[in-house]
Amino acid sequence: MKTNEVPQQNAKAFMGHSKLLYAQDQTGRYVGAPSSGWEAEEIVLDQAIGEYVQLAADAWRRAKAGAASTLEYHMYRERMDVVLLAQSTGFPKWRVRRHLKSGVFQKLPLRHRQRYAEALGKTPEQLERLPEQP
Amino acid sequence: MNAVTAPADIEIPFDHRQSAHCESGAIASLLRHAQLPISEPMAFGIAAGLTYAYLPFLKFGGLPLFAYRMPPGHVIRGLAKRLGIRMHFERFTQPEAGMAALDGYLAAGRVVGIQTSAYWLTYFPPDMRFHFNAHNLVVYGKRGDQYLISDPVIDIRVQCAAQALKKARFTRGVLAPKGLLYYPQSVPAQVDFTGAIRKAIRFTTGMMLYTPAPILGVRGIRTVARKIRRLDPRAAHHNKLLLGHIVRMQEEIGTGGAGFRFLYASFLQEAAVVLGKPALTQIADELTAVGDEWRRFALHAAKMCKDRMPMDYALLSGQLLDCASREEKIYRWLRAEVK
Question: A-chain residues within 8 Å CB-CB of B125?
C-alpha cells in the first residue's frame, strides 16, 4: 500500500480520531500513515455492534414480557455474552444461564447481584431496571 | 494537626507518538523514553510478533480466534530477551494497592506501561470499546483525579479518571490484566541489533514455515482458506459473522494494515540497513504486495457481508491460498538471507 492509497473515509466510529497504518511513500520507504477510516473496517465494525444491539433488543422484549431477567438485557447492552459474563464474574456458565431466567435474578442474594453489577459497571439497582427503549 | 492536602499534579515529560499496535507501541515508546532509540516496526520485528494462528478452541462471542500476531505479552518479553533489557513487571491482587503503586511511580518521576481492558477506558470512542483485556498504554502523569495517558493507538494525548482506570486495570476473565504495570529497569549501553534481528527473523520464519500444527503459520492460512470454501451457504448469517470477525481481527484491531504484514515489511526495510542486506528491501516489497492482497480479501469479504458484492466463498478462499503460497516463498527467501 502506498501512502496515497491509505483510505480516508472519515469513519463515524473514530469520532474524528485517526488510526495509524504503515504504507510506502513515493520513494518506496515505509512511513506511519494515519487513516481516518476504511469502508471494509466500517462494515465489519457496524456488523459486530449491530449484532449486540439486536441481541439486547430481543432480550429487552423478553424481559418486558417477563420471559427473561433484566440481567440478560444488560449483559448484551454491555457487549458481553454468557461466556464473557461468566469469566468476568467467576460464576460458572450454567449458573449465569440460570440467573438469566425470569425471576431468578431478582431473588439472588445481594452479594451475587453485586458481582454482576461490578462486572457490568452498574449498581445492583440499575441491573433490575429496564430503560424505556432497548 | 495534619491537614489533608491533595497530592500535587504530576506531569513527566513524555514524547507521545501514535503507533499501529498497542503493545509494540507502548514498549517502543518506553524504550525511547529510556534513551534507546527504537521504532515501532523494529520493536515488533525483533520481538518476532508476526504470526498467523487459527485457534478454533478459543471462542470470542462464539467465534474462533484468528490471530495475526503472537499472544499478548510476547512482544514485550521477546524484545527484552533479544535486546538484553531487564523489565520490571508487577501485578496486584488488590486494586487499591495497584493504584497506589501507580501513584507512587508517578510521584517518583517514573513513566510506566500498564495493561488494561479496552472496554472501560472512557476516552475510547464508544463504538471502539470491546471487552479485550490485553490493551497496553503508558501513564505519564496525574492531574487532580485524571491520569495523563499516552495511548499508543490514539492520535492525541488523553486522560482517564481514576475510577475508570482502576476498573480497566482490574477486570476479570481471560487475559485479566491484574493491574499489570511495567517499565524497563535497565537498558544495556551496547545493544546488539544485528544478532537480535537475525534470531527474530529465524524465529518468525521457522514458525510460519515449519510448525507441525495445521492451524499455525502458512498451513494455518491454508486451513482457513479450505474452511471458507466449505462453508455451508445455508448458514448465511453465521458465515457473515465469521467473515466479518476475520476482517476485524485482520484490520481493525490495531494491526497497521493487512494483519501486521505492512508493519513487518517496514521492519524488514529497517533490518536491511542494519544488516547491510539490500535483499531484505526486496523481500519487504514482496511482503507489501501480499499485504495488498490481504487488504483486497478484507474488502471483498466486507462487501459480501453487506451484500454489496455477491457472496463467493471460492473467491475468498482462493485469495487466501494465494496469500499463503506467496508468503511461503517470502519466508523461505528471508530465512536463507539471514542464515
Answer: 13-15, 17
Alpha carbon of B277: minimum distance to chain A alpha carbons (Å): 16
Question: Closest residue of B to A23, CA-based?
Answer: B262
- CB of A32 less than 8 A from some CB of B: yes
**B186 burial level (CB within 10 Å; 0-12, 13-18, 19+):** exposed
**CB B65, CB B58: distance < 8 Å:** yes
A49-84 residue pLDDT tens: 999 999 999 999 999 999 999 999 999 999 999 999
Helix, strand, or coil (residue B181): strand
| A62 at interface of B, judged by CB pairs closer than 8 A | no
Domains of chain A: 3-37 (no CATH), 41-128 (1.10.260)
Q: Where are the domains of chain B?
A: 10-37+86-186, 193-337
Q: Cite the DSSP H helix spans in A1-134.
A: 39-64, 70-77, 82-89, 93-99, 110-120, 124-128
ipTM: 0.94
pLDDT at B20: 97
Angle subtended at Cα B272 by Cα B271 and Cα B273, rounded to the nearest 5 degrees = 90
- How far apart CA A21 and CA B334 sit, in angstroms, is 23
The burial class, CB within 10 Å (0-12 / 13-18 / 19+), for A90 is exposed
Q: Which amino acid is at B76?
A: I
Three cell numbers written together for B60: 470470542
Helix (H) / strand (E) containing B137 = strand B135-143
- Residue-wise pLDDT for B239-254, tens only, equals 999 999 999 999 988 8
Q: Which candidate, B169, B298, B280, places its Cα nearest to that of B243?
A: B298
Question: For residue B318, which of B217, B241, B250, B226 has the smallest C-alpha distance?
Answer: B226
Contact assignment for A40 to B299 by CB distance below 8 Å: yes
State the average pLDDT over residues B18-47: 98
CA distance linking residue A118 with residue A90, whole number of Å: 11
Q: Is A82 exposed, middle or buried (0-12, 13-18, 19+ CB in 10 A)?
A: middle
Q: What's at B164, amino acid-wise? A: A
> What CATH architecture applies to the domain B10-37+86-186?
Alpha-Beta Complex (3.90)
| The pLDDT of residue B1 | 46
